[in-house]
Amino acid sequence: MNVTVQTEVGQPDKLTAKDFASDQEVRWCPGCGDYAILKAMHKSLADMGARPENTVFVSGIGCSSRFPYYMATYGFHTIHGRAPAVATGLKLARPELDVWVVTGDGDALSIGGNHLFHALRRNVDLNILLFNNEIYGLTKGQYSPTSRVGQRSPSTPMGSIDSPAEACTYALGCGARFIARGIDVQAKELDVLFKRAREHKGASFVEIIQNCIVYNDATFAAFTEKDVAADMQLHVKHGQPMLFGRERTKGLRLNTQTLRLEIVVIGENGVTEKDILVHDEKNRVLASLLVALRPPSFPEVLGVIYCDQAALSYEAAVVAQENEAKAKGPGNLDKLMRAGNTWSVD
């Protein structure tokens, strides 16, 4: 960990991205999207005024889970799928820390699905980053829970027949109150999402579309390539109309008869900007419609899709209960053990 330098007034100097980068050699495949995410995180933490000594990264197993090694912060490289559980324990023990969970689509949505579910429904104040490359990269290219139907891999040589899990839809169903989506190489957008996630008190879920150049290269090309990005990416912002396209004339409109979203073009068939839906990140029903949209029929929805902070996060509620109990004075363990339904056997 880097040494914190104090200024004359006793306040720590402003840190830079380099202060959050460890001295470990970064070992991912050349061209992996994880490099871009790591660089974005280093810069974001410095920009938001985070402190290495108060920051912890917890990961499970997978390519993404090497993340803690490359952060000059505290960190835990735990076991497959259990990062949310370990992070929950840490947050309960040290609620003042900034705790980040780094996981992958296989790590989080297969063996870790149960642990992710409870972290989200409990609303533990964790920043959960799910790197989604729709493949198992570390174990050499088997299909994952988010792989598409027809995906050919060593474990599905004839093509996957599984219906893929949709990460943001899953998070919304678990009760997550902050859901966002970004793309690995869009550093400016990731910077905003990381800051928003950290500001949110409660469980923050950020899906990051990440290219695996070796085992699933260009699987997201239909909306990430430069020549199609403008027409296939919808960056939503609270209070702004949901417009996209090279000329920003395409938009989403709610069909009141079918209660479905549809793409319309301003200037065609009498459509004006007033017909375009305005994004309301506090609207859970709207969020459920947006996370269900997928290319090629619709653009990929990016940005903060849902954010509706609860009154208390889980660990804050636990601390409140502890303080209430302590205020009542010392407990009586013998009385507690003999309370309720007890029997004496002669």
SSE order, one letter for each helix or strand: HEEHEHHEHEHEHHEEEEHEHH
CATH topology of the domain at 22-230 and 301-320: Rossmann fold
| Strand order, sheet with most strands | 2-1-3-4-6-5-11-7
Number of strands: 11
CATH-derived architecture of the domain at 22-230 and 301-320: 3-Layer(aba) Sandwich
Distance between the termini: 62 Å
Number of helices: 11
Name of the top-level CATH class of the domain at 22-230 and 301-320: Alpha Beta
The class by helix and strand makeup works out as alpha/beta
Give the averaged pLDDT, no decimals: 95
Low-confidence stretches: 1-8
What about the largest sheet?
A: 8 strands, mixed
CATH superfamily of the domain at 22-230 and 301-320: Thiamin diphosphate (ThDP)-binding fold, Pyr/PP domains
Quote the beta fraction.
15-25%
How does this structure look, described?
This protein is an alpha/beta fold. The protein has a domain at 22-230 and 301-320: Thiamin diphosphate (ThDP)-binding fold, Pyr/PP domains (Rossmann fold), CATH 3.40.50. It is 29% helix and 17% strand. It is built from 11 helices and 11 strands. An 8-stranded mixed sheet has the order 2-1-3-4-6-5-11-7, with helices on both faces. Strands 8-9-10 form a 3-stranded antiparallel sheet.
